[in-house]
UniProtKB/TrEMBL annotation:
The gene is ISM1. This is isoleucine--tRNA ligase. Residues 752-905 form the Methionyl/Valyl/Leucyl/Isoleucyl-tRNA synthetase anticodon-binding domain. NCBIfam families: ileS (TIGR00392). Residues 80-708 form the Aminoacyl-tRNA synthetase class Ia domain. Belongs to the class-I aminoacyl-tRNA synthetase family. InterPro entries: aa-tRNA-synth_I_CS, aa-tRNA-synth_Ia, Anticodon_Ile_BEm, Ile-tRNA-ligase, Ile-tRNA_ligase, M/V/L/I-tRNA-synth_anticd-bd, Rossmann-like_a/b/a_fold, tRNAsynth_Ia_anticodon-bd. Its EC number is 6.1.1.5. SUPFAM superfamilies: Anticodon-binding domain of a subclass of class I aminoacyl-tRNA synthetases, Nucleotidylyl transferase, ValRS/IleRS/LeuRS editing domain. GO terms for cellular component: mitochondrion. GO terms for biological process: isoleucyl-tRNA aminoacylation; mitochondrial translation. One of its GO terms (molecular function) is ATP binding. The keyword Lyase does not apply. Transmembrane segments: none annotated.
Amino acid sequence: MSRLLTLSMGHGPRALSGFRCTHFRASAIRAASTASTTAATDKDKKKAFSATLLLPKTSLPLRVKNAPKVDAKLRDRTTHELYRKQFQDNKGEVFILHDGPPYANGNLHMGHALNKILKDIINRYNVVRGRKVHYIPGWDCHGLPIEHKALGALGKSHTALDPVSVRQEARKFALQAIDTQKAEFKQLGVMADWDAKDGVYRSLDHGFEIRQLRLFQKMVSKGFITHRHRPTYYSPSSRTALAEAELEYTDLKSTSVYVAFPVEEGDMTPRLTEALARGREKRADATLHLAIWTTTAWSLPGNMGVTVGDEISYAVALNEKNQLLVIGEERVEELSKAFGPLEIVDKVTGECDMRNVPLTLQARTCAPYVTAESGTGLVHSAPAHGHEDYDAFKAAGISVSNMRCPIDDDGCFTEEIFSYSGNESTAPLVGQQVQGPGSKAMVELLKAEGVLLAQETVSHRYPIDWRTKKPILIRATPQWFADIQTLKPAAETAIEAINFVPATGRNRLSATVMSRSEWCISRQRSWGVPIPALFNAQGEAVLSTESLDHIISVLDARGIDHWWSGPVEDFIPPSLEGQEFTRGFDTLDVWFDSGTSWALIAEASLRPTTRPLADVYLEGSDQHRGWFQSSILTRLASLDAGEKPMAPYANLLTHGFTTDESGAKMSKSLGNGLSPMDVINGTKSTPAHGSDVLRVWAAGVDYTRDNSIGPSSISAAAEQLRKLRSALRFMLGNTATAPSLSLSEVQLSLVDRYILHELSSLQATARDAYDEFSFNKVLQNVASFTSSTLSSFYFDVVKDTLYCDHLNGTRRQAVVATLQHVLGVMVKLIAPITPHLSEEIYEAAATDAGNERKSSVFLEHWNPDTQWLDGATAEQMGDLLAIRSQVLGLIEEARAAKHVRVPAETAVVVNASSDVLSQLLEDNDLRITSRGDWWWRLTLVTDELLPTILGVSQVSVGGVDGIDESAWRLTGQATTGKHLTGPLRPSVIPELELGRMA
């Protein structure tokens, strides 16, 4: 027995939005439904009944039992075969995504997975849009981590082995790591020509190295490369200089010291002599000292002066040790807590009274970075151990050619310290690690010399080697530098033209580039590309276009290892023969390696030089100071005069880091690491999800921020993929065996047109989101369309038509045509994110239809079609869906009260004015031509359109002029196939009878 739901709607031509539910009434009769339930218990009858229905049929399983196996089956077709085919057959313009090379060390982690999946989504989107995608995955193969692995395998230290042995072992290790990572990248479903000779690039490849040296030669010829002895970041743990990009910062505890630097009476300015005299009026044996504060006691042997602030007011204060201390006046009160009672006897200024105070073996400088906000207001200056000190000395015209730096490559004090102190008191320092025992020994020496004013433990931010995680030094050594200052104007212009995602990347890259004046490009290691410089008998570097031309030609013919293994005579150009030379064995910074990888694209000549070489660079946010910076600098340095300053990338995308679900950094030692291979292949305690689940997670997050991943987020992604698969399978099962139907050949209903409108809207939104690299927006809109528009609405209202109508019925053909169109679009629209699911469906569709499958769904091409966008249809359906929402709400109340079990047990009475219904009929091309025709067309809407949309068995209409609201009811008599007559048109109602009230 159907239950009657009554609705009332307001008046006016567009009053549909004013529908409101007024009451619900039901009787207790359930004869028809009870009989149906009883009949359904008979297995044979049920089977016979099912045979009369057109149920979905497809070879696509509802659930994937072995996702890794399915992925493996589709791998060739979706990766290297597809890459070759699309580049050969696609007719669109070339799209270039240049791969930032991951380091060839160890297995993949979640950061690798996020990075490569995002790149692959971009590439696959461009393939499915018909463009030729150029993508060559790469690996960064040189550098310390691999060299350390090689040394570990050889069981000897760097100094005990010849460079060629180290290089051979390092190469072997790098190639093994590449093979491991390549196999895992394939499992992520990344499209590339992985196994072709030129399908990937490696910075250890001979061609890559020679290309890099040619670029270095060009920078030399343009004057960008110099060789100087100056302070650089130096890592004792790695035994090499570091670039600023290779530093991290952490909080460290150090012993800070306050030290009294004595000033000889003959070296004082008149004002300081006067201050000393006033002090001796208090204490006859008072001596004058400049008080400094430092957190790096180990740097004191490198001291060459004291730097003051010109505008700072200094106090000359007497302490209990009869020392007159020159300190910042603002600091007296605070420093008395460390030094003991201080009595101010005079005041002097940095500019007028202290400039050019000659200290024993030292110089005096002024610098703007000196303040009185901390320390003593005076700064200990060691140009070998500080960039600011070095620059201040040079600005003051003080020679830095003989900088004091008694520290060796291992970070230990050398015997050179004796020449600075002039006595044996420094002997305990020799051989001591300056940042360990050496620092403690220095403090004890200061105490013994009577110049230690105070000491305390402080916590401060300090740079560490980002590889070894150990503190670094600033140490003066001979190094090779690339000039950045000259490139800054061009860099500023180039950065302005780049599209950044997120937009904050512009400021980050700009600040990184503009904050540097030079780049230390030399490293003191064996595993890398050599800086091919010769040194004459006087120790002067010879690096010219001529020498490089000759040397690079030799290395090109004999291999890079020949630089270490061949005789030096092989590298002396003809014009310099007969002279003695030695080779420099520094190697190029690995950031110079990877930063020149754009030359690979330039060599391919895939597009005009008026455009950036690559459309997209995409890496982690830490690469602003790394690969992004080195790439733009090397590119700008290579441009010829008159060429427009241009970065090698048009779009610069950055993603955040991956953390566990509590936000903590993933670490093997903490046991919170989640391997992408474990997600794909499963473990003893977790299921094998396959790569599409991981891809759904990657596409669904806001990648511009740090993102967590763990069991709950993987489960959520798996559920999202399951719902998508279920919806697509429903459409496939109901359409695959039907002939292909054109939308222009069928009679589309309002509901069909609405679905096509929503699909067109989705296509426009998804296209824009893909173009803007907003993949989470694509996924969100796909999920909403799939769940709300299709599964919860359209599938619900068309199931009866699909299952019960005649195979070739007019209405069923319209639904099938609509589903075919939706499925055809959806399988391509989601393919960049879920390539394996899309290929599964593509293959199953061909199998179900008995057709031969083409190579790939990606080669079908998705051309977003917005022809079905229809505002009027959307507005009408919006009104009707508002009614549906109210009806479903009432039905849910009835179900909760156990009045009904399913919506099919209900009927609806709609109370409406005639002008509202007339508008509804006219909007659906059901124009009223006569009174009789009005009745006929009204029942077309009430018997077919409204029940379908509202999801109930019958809709009755009341409240219309000339119609008695009480004239309609539904009875519980099953009258299947019975034709009834009355004021309405003849109607066949399968289970319920429509008649007049007695």
